[in-house]
Amino acid sequence: MRLGVSHARALLPDLLDFVHRTGFPAEHVTTLTADWDDAPAAYTARTTKLVLARTPLPPTPDGAA
Fold first, then answer.
1. What is the rounded end-to-end Cα distance, in angstroms, of the chain?
2. Which pLDDT belongs to residue 46?
3. For residues 36 and 17, is the Cβ–Cβ distance under 8 A?
4. What is the SS3 assignment for 17?
5. What radius of gyration, in Å, describes the C-alpha atoms of the chain?
6. Helix, strand or coil for residue 41?
7. CA distances from 28 to 20, 50, 59, 65 (A)
8. Band of the pLDDT at 65, cuts 50, 70, 90?
9. How far apart, in Å, are the Cα atoms of 31 and each of 23, 37, 64?
10. Each residue of 17-34: pLDDT tens digit?
11. Which residues make Cβ contacts (< 8 Å) with residue 49, sequence separation at least 6?
12. Does the first or last residue of the chain, that is N or C, have fewer Cβ atoms within 10 Å of its Cβ?
């Protein structure tokens, strides 16, 4: 088995085009959605695709996010 970080940015335009052309239901790929605070427990779940959600952070005084 090999593990590593995927660098999806190069493939993203083709993927978005595919989803647009075919109407592929991309939301079906996600098998678990969890709140940000529940991330440690969510990562222990036996799941295919985990999506973490959190409330957006407020902007900093200098305008950076």
1. 37
2. 86
3. no
4. helix
5. 16
6. helix
7. 15, 12, 32, 30
8. low
9. 19, 18, 32
10. 999 999 998 788 889 999
11. 29, 30, 31, 32
12. N
Q: How far is CA 35 from the centre of its chain?
A: 13
Nearest-5° Cα angle at 12, 52 to 51 = 10
Cα dist from 63 to 12, 57, 58, 60, whole Å: 28, 12, 10, 5
CA distance 17 to 5: 23
Contact 32, 50 (CB under 8 A): yes
Tokens 């335009």: give the residue.
Answer: 13
Give the phi and the psi of residue 4 in degrees, each rounded to 5.
-175, 180
Q: Which long-range contacts (CB under 8 A, 24 or more apart) does 22-31 make?
A: none
Kindly provide the residue ranges of all beta strands, DSSP E only, lying in 1-65, ordered along the sequence. 32-35, 50-53
> Token digits for 49?
């695709």
